[in-house]
């Protein structure tokens, strides 16, 4: 199972490396959103510092949704969904492989956005460990939710508009938990940042369990 | 010869439209079957049913010994399917793509080179993105992706499409060789002869069932 999972990860990352969509298009667009949000808040530095955690996760939500969409566009292009279904690779490995590849891509996006808020929003990190753990938890949760919902809409003609519609409500709790955890890590909120980070791990674990069990069925019926 | 495909009174529905309407067909190992018929005759639906991509609503369907009504995914690891589309990752380089397909079925890396050479993809194209190839070259890469997996059952929908005459002949040789090694081949085609030449049996379909079978006793 590990070898199959890594095979899918390598393929997805290679497709991305060749196409350069994540770093070449999605990351600059998400950065642009940070800039636009800064303008929308009138470049008010104290307001930006207060809202940095939330604005960061809004940008991740937007960029992450595009990456999830792209991950399944690659599988549906040129009839690839048939090959995906016919693949000798087990459904749990396909699920984990695509999730892991998305984790890497969204992780890279977050690094770019993290640099963006550091530069644009003048933030100071007070708890690096919490910041790191919350980012990892949020990225895992984004990735597994994305793959689970991505495969459900992959076979549909209207997937381009349907996927964000399905995904945003599912990702909203992660957005909320990530924002709260980041606010604690950035020292603008004193409450339970670790609880929020743990919540994201719980969301990730639930979706991973569902994905491992149901991905084959969803792939078949999608 | 043992039966590779055994369909008895098979009915299959796509959406609300019946695409197979009581299909009876038995295909033995090593046969090369040419499916003929007008557009909408059910050729593609039959191929997709054999691959388990369309579920069987009623009747008995066995592919490579697996009951398709129980588990339609089970025979897939032994099947090579080539539809109208090529199932290629356009951003990957040619060799990377075939290598991925090879690894997915547990074939050796060296098989990738052999498959690409066998279908006539020149070495200078191996490190080229698939998206920049011509339609015929992409079809060859798709065929190489099947060859590398050495399927026991080949399901091909208009496999000669986009290929030049030399490549068509080469594909026929590849299919004939696979058949001699024990693989079973079912392909749909609107080509005039010489495509018929490699077929051991010609089946004409219409309305989702068999109208004529050259191998019927």
Verbal overview:
The complex is a heterodimer of chains A (222) and B (217). Chain A is 85% helix and 0% strand. With 222 residues, chain A is mostly helical. Chain A has one domain (2-219). The mean pLDDT of chain A is 89. Chain B has 217 residues and is of the alpha/beta class. Chain B has a six-stranded mixed beta sheet, sandwiched between helices. Chain B has a four-stranded antiparallel beta sheet with strand order 2-1-4-5, covered by helices on one side. In chain B, β7, α5 and β8 (184-188) form a beta-alpha-beta unit. In chain B, α2 (94-104) crosses α3, α2 runs parallel beside α4 (135-147) and α3 (109-119) crosses α4. The two termini of chain B are 16 Å apart. The model of chain B has no long low-confidence stretch (mean pLDDT 89). Chain A binds chain B through residues 4, 7, 11, 14-15, 18-19, 74, 77-80, 82-83, 85-89, 216, 220, and chain B through 51, 53, 73, 76-77, 79, 81, 83-93, 96, 100-101, 103-106, 129.
Question: What is the helix content of chain A?
Answer: over 70%
Task: Name the average pLDDT of chain A.
Answer: 89
Helix content of chain B: 25-40%
Number of strands of chain A: 0
Low-confidence stretches of chain A: none
| Total count of strands of chain B | 10
Q: What Rg of chain A is obtained from the alpha carbons, in whole angstroms?
A: 17 Å
Give short descriptive properties of this protein.
heterodimer; A: mainly alpha; 85% helix; 0% strand; B: 217 residues; alpha/beta; six-stranded mixed β-sheet; 5 helices; 10 strands
Secondary structure elements and pairings:
The complex is a heterodimer of chains A (222) and B (217).
Chain A: H1 2-19, H2 22-40, H3 45-76, H4 80-86, H5 91-120, H6 128-154, H7 159-185, H8 193-221
Helix pairs in contact in A: 1-5, 2-3, 2-5, 3-5, 3-6, 3-7, 5-6, 5-8, 6-7, 6-8, 7-8
Chain B: E1 3-14, E2 17-28, E3 32-36, H1 43-50, E4 56-63, E5 66-67, E6 79-82, H2 94-104, H3 109-119, H4 135-147, E7 153-157, H5 165-180, E8 184-188, E9 201-206, E10 209-213
Parallel strand pairs in B: 3-8, 3-9, 6-7, 7-8
Antiparallel strand pairs in B: 1-2, 1-4, 4-5, 9-10
Helix pairs in contact in B: 2-3, 2-4, 3-4
């Amino acid at each position: 199972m590990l070898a199959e999972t890594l095979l899918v990860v390598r393929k997805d990352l290679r497709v991305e490396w060749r196409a350069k969509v994540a770093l070449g298009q999605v990351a600059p667009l998400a950065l642009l959103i940070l800039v636009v949000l800064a303008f929308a808040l009138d470049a008010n530095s104290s307001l930006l510092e207060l809202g940095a955690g939330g604005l960061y996760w809004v940008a991740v939500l937007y960029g992450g949704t595009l990456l999830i969409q792209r991950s399944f566009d690659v599988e549906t292009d040129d009839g690839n969904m048939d090959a995906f279904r016919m693949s000798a690779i087990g459904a749990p490995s396909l699920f984990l492989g695509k999730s892991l590849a998305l984790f890497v891509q969204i992780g890279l996006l977050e690094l770019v956005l993290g640099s963006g808020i550091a530069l644009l929003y003048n933030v100071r990190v007070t708890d690096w460990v919490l910041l790191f753990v919350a980012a990892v938890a949020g990225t895992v949760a984004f990735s597994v939710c994305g793959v689970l919902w991505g495969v459900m809409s992959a076979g549909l003609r209207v997937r381009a508009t349907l996927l964000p519609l399905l995904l945003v409500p599912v990702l909203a709790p992660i957005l909320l938990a990530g924002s709260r955890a980041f606010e604690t890590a950035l020292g603008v909120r004193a409450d339970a940042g670790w609880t929020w980070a743990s919540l994201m791990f719980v969301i990730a674990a639930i979706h991973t369990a569902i994905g491992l069990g149901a991905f084959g069925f969803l792939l078949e019926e999608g | 010869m043992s039966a590779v495909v055994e369909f008895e009174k098979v009915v299959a529905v796509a959406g609300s439209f019946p695409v197979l309407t009581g299909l009876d067909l038995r295909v033995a190992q090593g046969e090369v079957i040419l499916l003929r018929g007008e557009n909408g005759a059910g050729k593609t639906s039959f191929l997709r049913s054999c691959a388990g991509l369309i579920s069987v609503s009623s009747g008995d369907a066995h592919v490579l010994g697996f009951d398709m009504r129980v588990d339609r995914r089970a025979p897939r690891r032994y099947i090579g399917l080539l539809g109208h589309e090529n199932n290629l990752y356009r951003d990957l380089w040619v060799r990377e793509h075939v290598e991925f397909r090879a690894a997915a079925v547990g074939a050796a890396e060296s098989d990738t080179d052999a498959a690409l050479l066998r279908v006539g993809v020149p070495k200078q194209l191996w490190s080229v993105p698939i998206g920049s190839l011509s339609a015929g070259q992409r079809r060859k890469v798709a065929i190489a992706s099947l060859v590398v997996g050495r399927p026991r059952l080949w399901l091909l929908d208009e496999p000669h499409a986009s290929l030049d005459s030399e490549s068509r002949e080469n594909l026929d040789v590849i299919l004939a060789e696979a058949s001699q090694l024990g693989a079973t081949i079912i392909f749909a085609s609107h080509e005039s002869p010489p495509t018929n030449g490699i077929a051991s049996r010609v089946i004409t379909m219409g309305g989702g069932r068999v109208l004529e079978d050259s191998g019927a006793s």
